[in-house]
Amino acid sequence: MNTPSPKQNPTPRAANARTVRRLLIVVVGMFGFGFALVPLYEVFCDITGFNGRTKNEQAVVNQRSIDKSRTINVQFITRINQGMPWEFRPEVRSVRVHPGETKVVQFYAKNLTDQDMVAQAVPSVAPGQAGLYLNKTECFCFNQQPLAAGSETLMPMQFYLDPDIPKHIHTLTLSYTMYDMTAHTHPDVLASIKAEPTAE
Amino acid sequence: MSTAVGEMTNHDHHHHAPSGFTRWLFTTNHKEIGSLYLWFSFIMFLVGGSMAMVIRAELFEPGLQLVDPHFFNQMTTVHGLVMVFGAVMPAFVGLANWMIPLMIGAPDMALPRMNNWSFWILPFAFMILLGSLFMDGGGPAFGWTFYAPLSTTYSTDSTALFVFSVHIMGISSIMGAINVIVTVMNMRAPGMTYMKMPMFVWTWFVTAFLLIAVMPVLACAATMVLTDKYFGTSFFDAAGGGDPVLFQHIFWFFGHPEVYIMILPSFGIVSAIIPAFSRKKLFGYSSMVYATGAIAGLSFLVWAHHMFTTGMPVGAEIFFMYATMLISVPTGVKVFNWVATMWRGSISFETPMLFAMAFVVLFTIGGFSGLMLAITPADFQYHDSYFVVAHFHYVLVSGAVFSIMAAAYYWLPKWTGHMYDEKLGRLHFWCSLISVNVLFFPMHFVGLAGMPRRIPDYALQFADINQIVSYGAFAFGLSQLIFLWVLIKCVRGGEKAPDKPWEGAEGLEWTVPSPAPLHTFETPPEVK
Amino acid sequence: MSIRLISALIAVAPFAASAQSQLNMTQGVSEISQRVYDLHMTIFYICCVIGLIVFGIMFASMILHRKSKGHQPATFHENVKVEIIWTAIPFIILVGMAIPATKTLIAMEDTSESDVTIIVTGSQWKWHYKYFDRDVEYYSLLATPQEQINNRLQKGENYLLEVDRPLVIPTDRKVRFLVTSDDVIHSWWVPDFAIKKDANPGFINEIWTKVEQPGIYRGQCAELCGKDHGFMPIVVIAKEPEEFAAWLDEQEALALEAKAEEQRLLALSMSKDELMSLGESVYLGNCAACHQPNGEGIPGVFPSLKGTDMILNDRAAHIDIVVNGKRGTAMQAFGSQLSLRELAAVITYERNAWGNNTGDLVQAADVNEFLNR
What ipTM was predicted for this assembly? Predict the structure, then answer.
């Protein structure tokens, strides 16, 4: 009564073990896939402009001609993450540029506390699609920004819009949210802040 | 793992047959484990149901009466988790344990010892989850979808326990799914080809593949939440280069197949019951199989329809809208096939059939509202309103839960050897049918009128309908006590059930005695 | 005529005001919201027709083909032709639905050439509005008193849907909203405009509307954002463009005046009674949601202020946390939300209420000094 039927499954143990092994590979693979979604999402965002993310790295200087026939209104928004006692604002609210034309915009920042701090500005663009055509050749958002207690600074952002920017985009909003990264910064880095003349 | 593999050859337990609690703790018998799963899920159904009662009692009138908003959020969160992972999914695993070996002519599940494990870790997962409600600061309060950063930076310390319990639930589901796949692939009786398998086995087979594909992704999401909260990573924090919307993509990549995990086995159950009581073969068996596969495949391509308001490029919105609308085609095929099965049959209306027919109608209504939700521009209005709550409760309560009840009534004679009390069964059905509609149908209206979901208090224009909904909820909750009564009565005694109590039923499970003895098909049956 | 009169009278009653929209989606007040409503109704009717046919056939067979009437079962169980037909027909219906839906969607997502830009920021649990290009910005908080929520007072007509400072927008102009968040994810939803957009921390999202009729429109946060998710309503007033322009100028002037007034008041000290009574009202409006009216908080979630070491012993830290908030928690920086007087009053209140009795008075000048240290 307890003997397995040889007809039904010649080597059930081996067959089951093989199936289980294969399924476990799937499970492990999908667990890995879940984590792989993180870099995949980055790539996906870079391609589609999903969620208004912009390439946060230095672009090459524009080689192409300026499209004088169109003017695009570029607006700047600055925000400070809650609880961070900094002042942070663009020197101009918006600029009008031709696609391909390079502009520099200064951002003013002041550390209102009596402690040295390090901050990171995180950009976001609306409409999301426009983020694909915004090329920054120089930006304070590429690096973390140290600022000594009570000091102020002007931070430049140099950009141009790709002349291929779709015709229906007339306005582009670039938002920077400033985050306090002091707690995540190495103490040696913090100690070296004072030495640098950050204020202009 | 390898020690568990092939344990099936070793089941000589009737020689030592421990009694009492240890019998259940150490059992590797698929029928006993099936019963454990089913009772566990019923207890969880009552636990999650009582949380729903708290929610509906608070929403009975505008104003805060019974609970504070923080506790209210814990109730909605834990209600969702308990119902999804504690009630519906274990009930299906329990049915799979009981019925799949009987339906394919196998002596047991392929991996009995793993089967024991996959059940017995579940109670611990839920003890942890429910226990966290009694911590300082309470249990999880960020919704069962645990969107970051509400679940990371802004959550209480019970989050660690929440993540731990979700991991255990996931492991349990994955083990259960592996067991089903191995059993179906390797343990079928001679002659039981894939295209002869009952629809319930087919739908569960597909469901099991969905489970092993997406439960690991849920584990990923939960792990990232844990490391973001406690270990300084920034998967979902913009400050460190992360993105909170990424969480939703990962979650719904799991979450959408998950809703099919909770409905495909229902399709299988209904595809068994409707032919039995129509005394006519299931219409379009092969198209049913293909439709199941199509639904499962499409379920991986539609996740972002839960996220239309997060700010997607219009191209992505259009893609996910079309893909979602497409799912209604195979789903429609299933409904048409069930109706065609009934057409010109010889229909009788015992309780399982009543629940199965109610399933077809109410699930279809849930499908219609699902189709409406797929239309992106309209979804901007429906999203996160009570319309959504109405939609998924139609699909999950009058859909999945009704099918589980239908299954219970259908197979109770086989499980217990007794006929259930038909009068009480019908009373349970009619009470449930009426109250479930009083409960969920008016939710469509408040949703359309602009009531957001997950709020403990609401504006005055929603008051009348919320009161009706709450009455429906109390009635539905009480109706389930009839079910409990029927079950206990049936287990303890009743009219002796024949081997095949239903005239039109088909399948190997009806060839064994009632109640099914602990060991069946030790000599595999010959399937022609 | 008399019917109109009666219905107008009924409309005054709080319940019936929304009676027409109580059971269905609103048609709203913009072209887009009308199109969304039409789309919703079209698909609803299509579903009804399909439902009638399918359920009709099902019920017919339940009645005609029952065993109790002695009906004998047929034996057919497949028919390829029929199955192809009922796969193809739904597909064609779906294509029919997809075309108008796609058109509407593309129109909704076209945010270009707007006339006014407003930055909408969600935080736990209030909205902040800022007019781009102008020096006008403010927080918009729930105005329903706690007594109504706790059932101690009769609930008002706009219970939970009223705010202290509504958003004001012009009619007949394309208004573009940039939606973002300070902490968790919120969602800005005004049903009458058919717009709902998630506010994601660190990222901006766009939506737009063009309102046709002046009026007051109400909405709510739609994404679970923590404890008081149900208590952060949205109220939008649409005004004629000229009226709107005048309002905006006035607000800008008022903001400047308030700043000047604040500096002038720095020299004046408030009495303890003044501080405590102003402090209590500020506390109940801004702090009690978390720290509770009795100052005891919710254990494990929101810390107690009663007998707390910081409050009793560290005045500077107390001012700091109220002004700057605490990063990574629900404790916001109130420095930008309250005036100096309000800050001083609420700090004084917290230092002297619920038996804290430090006897400390914090004046606006003290807070100002802290800010400019």
Answer: 0.90
